[in-house]
Amino acid sequence: MLKLKNVSKYYYQDGMIASGFTKVNLDLNLGEFVVITGESGSGKSTLLNVLSGLDTYEDGEMYINGEETSHYTEEDYLNYRRSYVSNIFQNFNLVNSYTVYENIELTMLMNGRDKREIKPIIEDLINKVGLKKYRHTLVSKLSGGQKQRVAIARALANDTPIIVCDEPTGALDSKASSEILKLLYEVSKDKLVIVVTHNKAEIEKYATRLIRMHDGKILENKVIKKIDLDDQIKSRDVNNITWINKVILGVRNAFNIPIKFLLMFAIYLLITVTLISNYGSLKIAEYEEINYSYSSYFMDDTDKRIIINKKDKSPITESEYQSIEKLSNIEYIVKNDLYNDYSVYMQNGHVYLDGYLRKDKVTNVDYGKNINGDNEIIVIGNPDSYYLKEEKEEVLKGTYAFSDENVSFRGKVVGIVYDSSLSEYSYEFIFSDNLMQLINYSTNINANKLKININKNYLNVYDNRIGISNKVPEGEVYLKDNLNGYCNNYNCFNSIVNLNATNIYHNDNIALKVSKVVSENNSKDLIDGQVDNSYISLYINEKDYNKLFNNASYQSSVYVKEVKDVELACKDLNDLGFNTLALRESKRNDAEMIMNIFKIFRLIVIGALVITLFFISYFIMKIIYKSRNSYYTTLRTLGSTKKVCVNILMNELITLATFTYTLFVIFAILVKNNIIKFAYLTKMTKYIGLKEYLFVYLILILLSLLMALRYGRKIFKNSIIKTYGERL
Ligand code: ADP
Ligand code: MG
């Protein structure tokens, strides 16, 4: 039983009191179809709002099944509404962007029902109100009468014992009105239905009780049809919305209004792109800063180079090289590290070529031929470099002289290879094996302390070079006759020459017996080809030479595929037992201060950006979500708490953020793998790792949560009646 005893409702406005209704007494029961009439302003709506718990009263007592309600808190009213009351409004209060089905489903999802389980119930209700054809039509496309049918179906789906209808036909033409009233009567046989309407004539035939109001008072309260009074109004089962239903609604709301979806997509994309691109370009600037700085010790200071040696300073074995090659981010290894820092300058007439030794292999020669004999050279350069473009015939002509402080030779360029990754002014060279042996000698002299001793006399090693000749037997040495002065009787034949070479890795001695003393002329054919013989004073066998300089690999250079791999590669190499010196790091020390400035700068820029974006997006989102007020008011009239509304909105925003971000990340992956080609973007994506991607996603989620919380606070600032009233 719903009972009012001397209940009055006052409105306080602008310091004045207005009366909604005064001293109303009423007993209503299940099974009744109550019709309330009266002129505008007579207090009908106020009475309905109090009866349905949408509004409080000031005076008197309202009883629900005998329970007095004056002590009711907001939460008590909410529970009362959820257990007992459904409302039907003049302006329908439906969700226009949902279909007929979804509108009815909404109230059941809010009640924690299972989406699949309720399908037949909803279909049944839709048939009952005669909208089978419009099941999946958007409510915004329906006529007024059809909309009110949806509202009735929704009230039935809500399954409460009391249905309160405030002028349900106020917005309908007379034909639609009578149809709606008839439907209302038919579908609500064993409920308590309270209808406010002006269509008195139409509805009188259904009414069991007629109430006429005037000036806030009940003038007439006439029972037309006596019904079996059922004192107890049974409440329906009240369940809370499940998290899965909140997700279903959040995802639905994310996509169901195309324009809102596009705007939100644009905002999230803007935030993502701005953050990522700023971070990326700052990172690129930082890396390039390092590229411009240089290493003071190494000629080849590309960032991709890592110099390694064994922790115990022992030679690196073949199997160790193999395990290095197996590391995923290694491009190639240069076993003899000394070659990396060896520069070459060659001249032939007016052609000057300078550069470094080529490190990785070259298989195809673009012009000329490959090396297949002694004293041959291949030049590698940019296809636009002057000599290799305009004068390539000239480059292949004649003999080049080459020398450094330790060796000199002459060689012929036989082939040209084009490599556009080189600059136009820098070349790389591949030498035939005999020429490489000379370069090896030169690098060894530089990297070792060499002592040559004959008869306790130490020779000047720069003026008395060692020649490698396999015409000299192992263990012996041929000596130029200009060294005879160091020996007894001016003859070194059968003397012993002691050689010692040492550096941080080794200390090796060999003693060789002089088995021939040769003149300048006789020495010519000891070494083939074009090697300049004049400075060479000792000729020894290759095996002895290797013993002397201990030509094992103590120190090598590893080149990584990408600069960003350096750190990880160093770690892997350390794990394999190597000391590492990353050129990038040794340069970083030089550039440390600039780096730190960059880091602080980056932090400030990103920080300012995050804050600015946050406010801009919040402002735009606020405008977009203003239009969503009616949706959340509808949820409230269906019995949703603030927390539920906020949760649903959070799910919606997180869905939008995740959707946008996923698309962005897919795009980034395509760019990174060069499937979509933007040189700068590709470069940028290389510097952005998982950490940065997660960080940006976190920002998006954070923005979504804050937005949902603030918006929730805003829509619940006002009561339903006020929010509802503002929309009329
Ligand atoms: P009806 O629905 O019969 O047209 P209402 O219940 O809306 O009448 O209004 C009854 C009285 O209460 C009217 O005098 C109206 O001015 C007053 N009233 C209604 N709502 C408010 C309100 N929110 N603030 C102040 N006065 C109100
Ligand atoms: Mg009214």
Can you give a write-up of this model?
The protein is α/β, with parallel strands linked by helices. The chain has 5 domains: 2-238, P-loop containing nucleotide triphosphate hydrolases (Rossmann fold, 3-Layer(aba) Sandwich), CATH 3.40.50; 244-287 and 594-726, no CATH class; 296-335 and 554-586, Alpha-Beta Plaits; 337-430, no CATH class; 449-548. The protein is 41% helix and 23% strand. The chain has 23 helices and 28 strands. Strands 21-20-24-25-23-26-22 form a 7-stranded mixed sheet. A 6-stranded mixed sheet has the order 6-7-8-3-9-10, sandwiched between helices. A 6-stranded mixed beta barrel has the order 13-14-19-16-18-17. Helix 20 (642-672) packs across helix 21 (679-686) and helix 20 runs antiparallel to helix 22. The longest helix is centred in the middle third of the chain and has 35 residues, at 258-292. Adenosine-5'-diphosphate (ADP) binds next to strand 1, strand 2 and helix 1.
Number of structural units classed as domains: 5
Largest sheet: 7 strands, mixed
Q: Strand-residue fraction?
A: 15-25%
Bound molecules: adenosine-5'-diphosphate, magnesium ion
**CATH H-level homologous superfamily name of the largest domain:** P-loop containing nucleotide triphosphate hydrolases
Which structural class matches the secondary elements?
Answer: alpha/beta
Give the strand line-up of the largest sheet: 21-20-24-25-23-26-22
Rg result: 46 Å
| Total DSSP E strands | 28
Fraction of residues in helix:
40-55%
Task: Tell me what the CATH architecture of the largest domain is.
Answer: 3-Layer(aba) Sandwich
Number of helical segments?
23
The low-pLDDT segments are none
CATH class label of the largest domain? Alpha Beta
* Residue-averaged pLDDT: 88
Q: What is the CATH topology descriptor of the largest domain?
A: Rossmann fold
Question: What global shape is seen?
Answer: rod-shaped
Cα(first) to Cα(last) distance is 32 Å
